[in-house]
């Protein structure tokens, strides 16, 4: 595997880990526990809200079909990361205040958090990872990325109950910091793939003269204008020059 291929696999692995460290896993697994022990609701109310939250999660997931294509992968990831940051920060503040009103606001933040999560990182990683993987390593690379996701999810799931017991509302500040850190990661390292063919995405990572993010933006502009994109790149296997001509047709 070449250095460029390893970079693409690494990006997919990190992105998948971001999903777990966003706080989505413990919120999904420990919803009743969080409502009862963090927000301060009764057991029966927590149980009821947990069921409603899962229904809301399903309803909100339909919005992913719109955001991932209309907004694009990068914008969806960044907007929802900011949204999750705000939700977890406000949730932490409401838990720290610890009043009946703050409990209601905190509960609302959990519902809003789940919406942001499903509009971005829930489905987005399963689309984006395979798109940026090199063809020859797509199956194994995505398998490794999935392993990173579930390993991270396991670690977070084991930590959170003890963290809530020992540091209380501060655990949500930690998740807010993680979510905020995802924004520069996406902005600087993840090229936009919406509207590009898999061959075009390959070219984004092959061009040595620029970054994948800039190259993807350039190719998307060419795609919208109907101009053919010509990229001269060095083939890794044979170490010889080749010219790849990608015909780009304007969208209807």
TrEMBL record:
Sections of the chain in a coiled coil: none
Keyword Metal-binding tagged: no
Cellular component terms (Gene Ontology): membrane
Protein name: Sugar transporter STL1
Chain ranges passing through the membrane: 46-68, 75-97, 103-129, 141-161, 167-190
UniProt subcellular location: Membrane
Tree of life domain: Eukaryota
Protein family membership: Belongs to the major facilitator superfamily. Sugar transporter (TC 2.A.1.1) family.
Gene3D superfamilies: MFS general substrate transporter like domains
Domain Major facilitator superfamily (MFS) profile: 1-194
Listed GO MF terms: carbohydrate:proton symporter activity
Membrane disposition: Multi-pass membrane protein
Pfam families given in the database record: Sugar_tr
Predominant place of localization: membrane
Record's keyword terms, sorted: Membrane, Sugar transport, Transmembrane, Transmembrane helix, Transport
């Amino acid at each position: 595997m070449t250095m460029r291929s390893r970079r693409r696999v690494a990006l997919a692995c990190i992105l998948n880990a971001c999903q777990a460290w966003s706080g989505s896993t413990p919120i999904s697994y420990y919803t009743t526990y969080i409502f009862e022990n963090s927000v301060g609701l009764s057991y029966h109310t927590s149980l009821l809200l947990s069921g409603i939250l899962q229904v809301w999660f399903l309803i909100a997931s339909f919005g992913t079909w719109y955001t991932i294509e209309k907004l694009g992968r990068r914008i969806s990831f960044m907007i929802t990361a900011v949204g999750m940051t705000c939700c977890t920060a406000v949730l932490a503040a409401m838990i720290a205040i610890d009043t009946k009103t703050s409990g209601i606001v905190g509960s609302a933040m959990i519902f809003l958090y789940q919406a942001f999560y499903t509009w971005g990182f829930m489905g987005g990683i399963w689309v984006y990872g395979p798109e940026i993987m090199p063809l020859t390593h797509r199956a194994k690379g995505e398998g490794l990325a999935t392993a990173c996701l579930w390993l991270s999810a396991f670690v977070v799931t084991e930590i959170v109950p003890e963290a809530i017991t020992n540091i209380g509302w501060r655990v949500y500040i930690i998740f807010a910091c993680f979510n905020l850190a995802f924004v520069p990661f996406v902005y600087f390292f993840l090229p936009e793939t919406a509207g590009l063919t898999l061959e075009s995405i390959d070219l984004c990572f092959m061009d040595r003269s620029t970054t994948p993010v800039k190259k993807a933006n350039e190719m998307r502009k060419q795609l919208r204008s109907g101009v053919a994109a010509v990229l001269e790149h060095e083939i890794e296997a044979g170490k010889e020059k080749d010219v790849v001509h990608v015909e780009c047709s304007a969208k209807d």
